[in-house]
């Protein structure tokens, strides 16, 4: 996507050579503050700049480390004096400060690119429009249980850069978003996993799916014949791009529709993995993660485990006892025979499709928020089959009403998590499921999807 023509000149060699060189960090969230700490450790003159307010916990860390920072605006002279800039993935290319940096020819890179320079650990990198947090967490769970010295980072957990500065892991399992990949140049994944490509964040990609898909495929750049590329053979967009692309790494596909060797596939109710003469078999009924989408996630994680030649017993145990992450199809409990599930992390239509697909009861669906140009048509069949009522949780719900008024008899508007939960509870009957799976971002009524999920869980406890 982005051209960083000066990138090679900025790969610093030793702390003494870096002494006094200005490195600027844009954005003081988890990744930015971690990158600042690593940069300081590496001898740079570090300056952190955030256009918004910096959270107290990050401000305290920067003060504790004596790192210069500013908030609620950018001092351009300070930033444009940098030899290199590490950018938060949330800052778009159209931001004025990024345009000025590009014009000045100052390299702009991601935290992943920066931190990767200072570790010899092997990298397992997982991306995709949906399922990447679950797959990353499951892969980490399997590797850790197998006794590997492994870290978990990227879009999840503690900052990768901070861990590089403070830990000594042999392996990292990294959840990587398209925004991180856009500013990744020399970094290499030893094992790259691409789960799927569906429309998401298209406002950052000129509303062109092919631009977004190209961004996802940056996960394969710099790979060699000694590396691995794991992908879903059933995903149309993934295959469309792959057909016209040369990948140096060894390719390991997975599918629930056809048999693939090498790779992973289903044989009746058995998940089969065959990689490099390594064979694994497990009943899908024994997997901790249920639902069609989670068979894909388990296949991807299982292939990684077999590439690393982990023992089948360890894999079987880990894939059977894994507990999913918070806010992703998280069981909140049962009240009056009604199940409550928190899927607040479902911020796009595809994630909500996967959630509905895994439901085995009638559903009261809590939907809505900041609509990123959603196409709700793909949900219609599942809504018609499984959803008895929709509770809208957002400031503007017109598009949800327009999309589903012919499929569902009851669509109700609410303005808070507490109100939405109470309304959903009264609309549900014993044996039903109340599912918070919004298909939208959360920023109209909440700080983020975690805040939305936590408020929902608190409201359930109050019923």
From TrEMBL:
Primary location class: cytoplasm
Ligand binding (ATP): 128-134
Top-level taxon: Bacteria
Catalysed reactions, semicolon-separated: UDP-N-acetyl-alpha-D-muramoyl-L-alanine + D-glutamate + ATP = UDP-N-acetyl-alpha-D-muramoyl-L-alanyl-D-glutamate + ADP + phosphate + H(+)
UniProt GO BP: cell division; cell wall organization; peptidoglycan biosynthetic process; regulation of cell shape
UniProt-listed Enzyme Commission number(s): 6.3.2.9
Pathway, per record: Cell wall biogenesis; peptidoglycan biosynthesis
TM region(s), chain numbering: none
Residue stretches making up the Mur ligase C-terminal domain: 327-440
Keywords: ATP-binding, Cell cycle, Cell division, Cell shape, Cell wall biogenesis/degradation, Cytoplasm, Ligase, Nucleotide-binding, Peptidoglycan synthesis
GO cellular component: cytoplasm
HAMAP family (alphabetical): MurD (MF_00639)
Family note: Belongs to the MurCDEF family.
Protein name as annotated: UDP-N-acetylmuramoylalanine--D-glutamate ligase
Taxon lineage: Bacteria, Pseudomonadati, Bacteroidota, Sphingobacteriia, Sphingobacteriales
């Amino acid at each position: 996507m982005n051209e960083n023509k000066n990138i090679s000149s900025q790969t610093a060699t030793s702390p003494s050579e870096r002494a006094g060189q200005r490195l600027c960090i844009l954005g003081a969230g988890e990744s930015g503050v971690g990158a600042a700490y690593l940069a300081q450790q590496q001898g740079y003159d570090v300056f952190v700049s955030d256009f918004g307010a910096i959270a107290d916990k990050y401000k305290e860390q920067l003060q504790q480390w004596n790192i210069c920072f500013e908030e609620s605006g950018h001092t351009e002279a300070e930033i444009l004096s940098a030899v290199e800039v590490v950018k938060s993935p949330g800052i778009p290319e159209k931001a004025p400060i990024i345009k000025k940096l590009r014009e000045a020819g100052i390299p702009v890179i991601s935290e992943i690119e920066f931190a990767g320079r200072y570790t010899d650990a092997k990298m397992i990198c997982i991306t995709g429009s949906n399922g990447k947090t679950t797959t990353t967490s499951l892969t980490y769970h399997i590797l850790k249980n197998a006794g590997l010295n492994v870290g978990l980072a990227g879009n999840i957990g503690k900052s990768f850069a901070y861990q590089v500065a403070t830990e000594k892991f042999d392996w990292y399992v990294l959840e990587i978003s398209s925004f991180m990949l856009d500013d990744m140049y020399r970094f290499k994944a030893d094992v790259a996993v691409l789960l799927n490509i569906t429309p998401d964040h298209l406002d950052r990609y000129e509303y062109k799916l092919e631009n977004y898909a190209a961004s996802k495929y940056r996960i394969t750049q710099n790979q060699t014949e000694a590396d691995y590329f794991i992908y879903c053979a059933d995903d149309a967009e993934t295959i469309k791009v792959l057909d016209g692309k040369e990948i140096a790494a060894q390719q390991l596909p997975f599918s629930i529709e056809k048999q693939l060797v090498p790779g992973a596939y289903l044989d009746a109710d058995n998940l089969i993995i065959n990689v490099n003469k390594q064979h694994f078999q497990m009943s899908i009924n024994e997997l901790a993660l249920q639902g069609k989408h989670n068979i894909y996630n388990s296949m991807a994680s299982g292939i990684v485990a077999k590439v690393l030649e982990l023992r089948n017993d360890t894999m079987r145990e880990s894939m059977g006892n894994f507990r999913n992450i918070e806010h992703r199809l998280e069981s909140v409990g049962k009240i009056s025979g009604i199940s409550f599930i928190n899927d607040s992390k479902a911020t796009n239509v595809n994630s909500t499709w996967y959630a509905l697909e895994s439901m085995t009861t009638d559903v009261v669906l809590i939907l809505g928020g900041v609509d990123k140009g959603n196409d709700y048509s793909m949900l219609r069949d599942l809504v018609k089959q499984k959803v008895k009522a929709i509770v809208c949780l957002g400031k503007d719900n017109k598009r949800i009403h327009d999309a589903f008024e012919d499929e569902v008899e009851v669509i109700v508007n609410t303005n808070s998590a507490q109100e939405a939960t109470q309304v959903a509870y009264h609309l549900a009957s014993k044996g039903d499921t109340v599912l918070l799976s919004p298909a939208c971002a959360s920023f109209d009524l909440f700080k983020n999807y975690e805040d939305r999920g936590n408020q929902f869980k608190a409201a359930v406890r109050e019923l």
